[in-house]
Amino acid sequence: MNTIWIGTSWKMTKTLAEGREWATGLRGHLESAHDGRAPAGIQPFIIPSFTATTTVRGILGEDSPVLLGVQNAHWEDAGAWTGEVSVPQAKDAGAQLVEIGHSERREHFGETVETTRLKVAAALRHGLTPLLCIGESAEVKEAGGSSAFILDQAAGALEGLSADELSRVVIAYEPIWAIGEKGRPATIEELIEPFAALGAEYTGRVAGLLYGGSVNLDNAADLLGIEHVNGLFVGRTAWKLEGYLELLRIAAAHVAG
Ligand code: PGA
Description:
The chain is of the alpha/beta class. It has eleven helices and eight strands.
């Protein structure tokens, strides 16, 4: 059975004090319930704001089983790019993973297939795990074009990678219509076809194929049961530590079968 990835991005939420409390709670839970390791068969990851990266790294410790990520990073290593953070800087701050191409960045901050490709390459160049987010709009879905659209987004971002490089990439399929306050949870039926398409192309070739968008405690188990899904990428439900811990428990029950 593949590793099940269970992760959250805090997006633009949490003060340092709130982040500290969340991370301290997670660490305490893993120590008391799992001897400081990850639950069997599960790869936890958390993606705080840039400002909390070093704080969370300090709390988790250097050899934590929890991967730490950033929500974006520039494709150049350094230079005159005001307001940006590079992959070497993210790594220096303790990050091991870089989220790339979230739909909120594509919609509001000019992220394109071309910039996602450059960022995936930059993350790999520095030994970080790229977490590539893909997903179609409601309009594309209504026109019946979901699978073709997300396959194009993925292919564009992953173009030219060797098999070894591709094996270090995690893909999260996050339909835009299912994300956030304005989204609605996808039904399981709606996700079968896009995951069949993604799975045919990427299962066994990438490190993980995740689902994200209005994941909650009621639908998580069913989402993990979809063929080719081997992880969940979660926003709101995991912003409270109790929600994240419950998702870990649901994933552990899934692993235990
Ligand atoms: P949500 O966010 O779980 O709050 O819908 C998901 C995401 O944007 O990854």
